[in-house]
Protein 1
Amino acid sequence: MKRFMTLLYGVISYVVFLGALVYLIGFLNGFLVPKGIDDGDAVPLAQGVLIDVGLILLFALQHTVMARPWFKSWSKRVLPETIERSTFVLLAGVTLLVLFWQWRPLPGIVWHVDSAGWIYTIYGLQALGWGLVLLSTFLINHFELFGLQQVYLHWRRRQPMPPTFRLPWLYRLVRHPLMLGFLVAFWSVPHMTQGHLIFTLAMTAYIFVGIYFEERDLVRTFGKQYSEYQQATPMIVPMPRREPVSPSSA
């Protein structure tokens, strides 16, 4: 029963986060959701900026702190290691839901595209960005990334394999294709309001801060392998590789 409850917890955490991520797409585009990023009563600019940036900081802090090795070591004292990732995923989903709930719209127009052709092109780029996000998660093991593999292996009484350094497909072009996908999706907007721009700017800044901390941890974990990978492969923008990278794509 304990193993089943652990598995159920992992599945619920995954569903909450996946639901929040799907809601985010509708939230940013203002369709098929109860509240979009520009819906609701407008508030004074200073008040809206303060609240909205604070909500993004809440998400960023949760995401950054809980991903650090020192926090994971501490969390083992109060949480089974099996559900550490699921708890991270659950709280990430909850903080996103709080952001949607408390977001203050700032409807002032920054730019607006009228041409139908350009609108379709921009939405096509946005769809490409979200597709890149999804594909990147599967390239690096979607189910491990979101905690499902850990709880499933626990249910089957099996131990997870230790982390290995590998470079599947897109990771040979850029070090962070998943984050590239988010950036493309966030910026590909035909109607940009002040509130939407605040979200996009703050999330863009957080992405690069998050990459800095993540890569510092990866260097500590994989050492010279990852350092050489950093030197050979661009961070976000695909460019010709400066020198060969040794790990196989398997």
Protein 2
Amino acid sequence: MREVVVISGKGGTGKTSLSASYAYLEGNNAVVSDCDVDAANMHLLLDANFKNQSDFFSGEIAIIDEESCINCGDCFDACHFDAITPGDDFHVVDPISCEGCHYCYRVCEHDSIVMQTLKAGDLFISDIKNSTQMVHAKLGFAAENSGKLVAKVKTQAKTLALKGDKEFVITDGSPGIGCPVISSLSGASLVVLVTEATVSGLHDLKRVQELVKTFNLEAVCIINKYDFGMSPIN
């Protein structure tokens, strides 16, 4: 089994369209994974049915027990992220601002704060229109750890590919060079770099190429829309 990972240095180069085209051409010979968990959209192109869903848990969030909170304000003073708001009878944690650092939990002398595992997203396994399966995910609003969710998508896709004796895993990675992209590259047999014939496209291609070289992975490059603006040849 070989994994082809399609990435780009920037958005809008046609990376997902190309990934979906590869997936459609391979048909039942491949399992598809969409690792662009921050803005997944390949399910639209491949008519995914979201058949199986599971929760993705990662990180923690502080929860204040309103019954035992005495409104002393120690947690409010300790929080460096402005995630705690004083109330009339007890303090409240803003789940979006909370970084799960445990500081408020440690300073509370009344055991009024607990750290709760956070649901950070959803993982899906779908049947798609080319008679195979796709593993994809959606990171929750303001959630972190996208790299861990990408790793889970890839692991599930490879498991399905091995179980079904598929020859390929076709992976649509995230644009850029951040944590989700690094996680997408793990274990790749071939990396396809998609760029466009623009100054910004070339700039971001160089950045992502350096990233791929760091992992010593085999790579090829596709210049999408290279002939836009060219005069027709008579």
